[in-house]
Design a protein that fits this description.
single chain; 219 residues; 2 domains; four-stranded mixed β-sheet; 58% helix; elongated
Length: 219
């Protein structure tokens, strides 16, 4: 990995992975839930310094640990070693005074952050066509539940609900815009994909029926 002009791309929807043009890591290749959890937490809070106490609480929550600082230090060593083995660098995560921080010179693009940016872009856009495009860009990023393997973690659970609700809202707004333009085939495709993710939402089923009726395909 070159030290300049390289952006790491991290995926959180449907599972964790991180990559650039030269290498990648995912939950399977990391082979440690604790290391994966640590990596994810640092990436999601990469703009601030994370104290040993905050990281220990996020990783172990209610679990008892005789020496959380020591356990975290060992886990951090293993994560840094894996990063160095993968990218040839060990400066992704820097050490502060009883704290750790992501190296701000290393750019990271998180799908969850791009998702929010596209949603905001769509909400602020006045032109219906460009509004649809921005919503679609956000919708396509949502591949499924946020970090399903870590769904029970307190810092994941609330975010998972938020992103799922935001996704469903975006789909319904996109469907309404497409319906208004008579783009029923696109409407059906958009809603059909959402139903594969959440088949219990009655409003989505109604949207899908209207899309089929618009194409004269409802029987």
């Amino acid at each position: 990995m070159e030290e300049q002009n390289t952006t790491l791309r991290a995926q959180m929807f449907s599972g964790f992975s991180i990559s650039d043009d030269s290498a990648s890591l995912d939950e399977e290749s990391i082979r440690s839930e604790m290391m994966t959890k640590l990596f994810i937490y640092i990436l999601c809070h990469r703009q601030k310094e994370l104290t040993v106490q905050e990281l220990a609480e996020a990783l172990w929550e209610e679990e008892e640990s005789d020496n959380p600082a020591g356990a975290l230090k060992n886990l951090m060593y293993r994560l840094r070693s894996l990063i160095k083995k993968t990218w040839g660098r060990n400066d992704f995560i820097l050490t502060g005074r009883s704290a750790y921080i992501w190296n701000q010179e290393i750019s990271v693009s998180l799908d969850i952050e791009v998702f929010e940016e596209k949603i905001k872009e769509a909400e602020e856009e006045k032109d219906p066509g460009r509004k649809i495009d921005s919503y679609k860009a956000a919708i396509n990023l949502y591949r499924g539940e946020l970090l399903p393997k870590f769904a029970s973690e307190y810092w994941v659970a609330s975010l998972s609900t938020y992103y799922h609700t935001t996704y469903l809202s975006a789909v319904k707004k996109t469907a309404a815009l497409l319906e208004a333009q008579g783009r029923f085939s696109e409407m059906a495709s958009c809603v059909s994909k959402a139903l594969q993710i959440d088949n219990l939402d009655e409003n989505l089923h109604c949207c899908f029926i209207r899309a089929l009726m618009g194409q004269d395909n409802y029987k």
